[in-house]
Amino acid sequence: MTYALFRCCPTSIFAKQYESSTDAVLRKLGVRFKDIKEFNCCGYPLKSIDVKAYTLAGARNLALAESNGANILTFCNCCFNSLRHVQHALKKNPPLHQEVNATLEKEGLTCRQPVEVKHLFELLFNDIGLVKIRNMVARSFSGLKIATHYGCHLLRPKDIVRFDNPIAPSIFDRLVELTGAESIAWRTKLDCCGSPLLGVDDELSLDLTQKKLQDAIRSGADYLCSACVYCQIQFDRVQKMLLSRRNEARPLPSILYTQLLGLSLGIDDKTLEIDKNELAITGIKNFRA
């Protein structure tokens, strides 16, 4: 199976290391993937403005994947959530499905819905499997305590995303523990990071971020590990702003899971673009066994 890799719009500007580290990990694990240049935004920013435009944007991506004979693989929680939402909406609303296809037909496209939308973590956990990945680990992290942050869109609504138990998820934690690190328990683990409020109410956004960071530090975390592009930007770029604005004494750097796993698989720092994170994460190598 060759996957169509659906890249997130913000990563090309704010988090290129998520793309490069994902590419490197997929190649290391022998996963075949390709880019479809005609892909557009998943539609997420339109959801609360124009539902039909949101649905059409998502359906067009599904139709493009279908015309290329590929399933969609994404590392972005929002894209994953949006594309599964669109699939659900088209299935439940045949008239809407017909209307969307009437528009797509102007481009010679049709969305018949045979395409599977898969999150990177589903591929790693369910398809490749923990045993195979564990056998490929070249460098184990010893004594490293990680606070995993799933992100809201990966878990909810559960009947649409169907990823994990939204109240007590474990998939991400088990993937982190493949690297030898410990995934710690922390009280605000499933709370929002504050990203959706940035630009609307910056102080409230920073309050939510600060609350999570302080809780993770109190719980003994050495690093955060985020599954979400927007959350990573919040914990990296925005935390840097928070540190200077609110005189926080201790940063808690956030490493992308694909960077953590990539290091564990023996991929070099340059390929994983470890130096591209706003808050330095190079110290994580001190935990290698």
How are the SSEs placed, and which strands pair?
Elements: E1 2-6, H1 11-14, H2 16-28, E2 32-34, H3 51-67, E3 71-74, H4 77-92, H5 94-104, E4 117-119, H6 120-128, H7 130-136, E5 145-149, H8 152-155, H9 158-161, H10 171-177, E6 182-183, H11 202-218, E7 223-226, H12 229-246, E8 254-256, H13 257-264, H14 269-272
Parallel strand pairs: 1-2, 1-3, 3-4, 5-6, 5-7, 7-8
Give a short overview.
The protein is α/β, with parallel strands linked by helices.
Q: How would you describe this protein?
A:
- The chain is of the alpha/beta class and 289 residues long.
- It folds into two domains: 2-120, Glutathione S-transferase Yfyf (Class Pi), Chain A, domain 2 (Up-down Bundle), CATH 1.20.1050.140; 129-287, Rossmann fold.
- Helix content is 48%, strand content 10%.
- The longest helix is centred in the last third of the chain and has 18 residues, at 229-246.
- The protein is globular, with a radius of gyration of 19 Å.
